[in-house]
């Protein structure tokens, strides 16, 4: 289960303190030592951990907290609030363009779940927001990527625009958007190429598509199981493309939590959705507060 180790360790640290009636500064410090280790072991970025521990400690060691009626509860509340803040605080929604169709670009490395997530997102928009999305197959390099998206489209009964793999992705994106306008589609989701590693050719292609397609949202799809690698990938994509949000996949696996807890803080960009399985309805909006409560138990 995701976050299992982290959850257990954080809960243990809190419980130890909860058993005490009155708590001292030393108790808070001891608890925070354990919290720090739990976060580091969950593969949370070390700078993020340092900042988190500092903030929680400063807020907890004040007189109002330690002298209050239920100091341990107050401290736990602070941990919960700061964990929520770390993941972005408020839930963030999908932005729409002032003029239809809204273009969403899906980017990410191969295997992260980009193509599947493009389908999931189309399904989500139709089902939850009553939209008329269209998918565009602009990943012309990975063998079978176009076919994969077409199959997903068939399963969902959502149209997929494709032009084979002999036309440039920029042109496919452009024609796809034209087609969406003709057919009065209000969302265009472009599945772009992923590669095994970030390279210049990939980024140039993506910046070209961005310049032309003028997307309202650029969602980076990253695999939660890859921990700090996911965070590094997010940093690079964000530097080059100024992404608008992250979709964290494979949260149904036993990810330790590092990516979920670090990405927002490191990139400044919110996690918008999480992938919770291989099925096309396994996409959930990301609620920082619920996630924090789930981790803290
Ligand atoms: P792409 O190369 O980034 O386009 O990746 P794909 O969409 O082909 O996905 C790679 C694999 O990850 C496929 O087997 C997907 O079914 C799987 N996958 C994608 N998202 C999730 C998820 O949220 N949970 C799980 N368990 N598997 C996922």
Descriptive account of the structure:
This protein is an alpha/beta fold and 297 residues long. Helix content is 53%, strand content 14%. It has an 8-stranded mixed β-sheet, sandwiched between helices. Helix 8 (169-182) packs parallel to helix 9 (200-213). The radius of gyration is 21 Å and the shape is elongated. Bound molecules: guanosine-5'-diphosphate. Its EC number is 3.6.5.4.
Quick structural summary:
The protein has helices spanning 4-18, 25-41, 46-60, 63-66, 71-86, 114-129, 145-156, 169-182, 200-213, 228-241, 258-267, 288-296, and strands at residues 102-108, 133-138, 160-161, 187-192, 217-223, 245-249, 271-275, 283-285.
Helix count equals 12
Q: Can you tell me the overall shape?
A: elongated
Which regions are unreliable across 5 or more consecutive residues at pLDDT < 50? none
Strand content: 5-15%
Through-space gap between termini: 13 Å
Overall mean pLDDT stands at 95
Write out the strand line-up for the largest beta sheet, numbering strands in chain order: 3-2-4-1-5-6-7-8
Major sheet size, sense and barrel closure: 8 strands, mixed
Q: Taking Cα atoms only, what radius of gyration do you get, to the nearest Å?
A: 21 Å
Class inferred from helices and paired strands:
alpha/beta
Cofactors and ligands present?
guanosine-5'-diphosphate
Order of helices and strands: HHHHHEHEHEHEHEHEHEEH
Into which percent range does the helicity of residues fall?
40-55%
Number of strands: 8
């Amino acid at each position: 289960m995701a976050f299992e180790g982290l959850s257990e360790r954080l809960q243990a640290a809190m419980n130890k303190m909860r058993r005490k009636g009155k708590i001292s500064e030393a108790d808070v410090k001891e608890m925070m030592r354990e919290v720090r280790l739990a976060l580091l072991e969950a593969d949370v970025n070390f700078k993020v951990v340092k900042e988190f521990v500092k903030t929680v400690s400063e807020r907890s060691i004040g007189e109002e907290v330690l002298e209050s009626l239920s100091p341990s509860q107050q401290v736990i509340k602070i941990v919960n609030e700061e964990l929520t803040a770390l993941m972005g605080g408020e839930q963030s929604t999908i932005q729409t363009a002032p003029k239809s169709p809204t273009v969403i670009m899906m980017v990410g490395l191969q295997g992260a779940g980009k193509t599947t997530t493009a389908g999931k997102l189309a399904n989500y928009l139709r089902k939850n927001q009553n939209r008329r999305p269209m998918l565009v197959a602009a990943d012309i390099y990975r063998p079978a990527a176009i076919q994969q998206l077409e199959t997903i489209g068939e399963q969902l009964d959502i149209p997929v625009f494709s032009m084979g793999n002999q036309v440039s992705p920029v042109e496919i994106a452009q024609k796809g958007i034209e087609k969406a306008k003709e057919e009065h589609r209000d969302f265009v989701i472009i599945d772009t190429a992923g590669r095994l590693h970030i390279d210049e050719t990939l980024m140039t292609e993506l910046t070209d598509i961005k310049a032309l397609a003028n997307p309202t949202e650029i969602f980076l799809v990253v695999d939660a199981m890859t921990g700090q690698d996911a965070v590094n990938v997010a940093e690079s994509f964000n530097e080059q493309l100024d992404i608008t949000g992250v979709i964290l996949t494979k949260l149904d696996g036993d990810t330790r939590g590092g990516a979920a807890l670090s990405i927002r803080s490191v990139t400044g960009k919110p996690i918008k959705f999480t992938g919770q399985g291989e099925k096309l309805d396994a996409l959930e909006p990301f609620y920082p507060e619920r996630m924090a409560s789930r981790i803290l138990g």
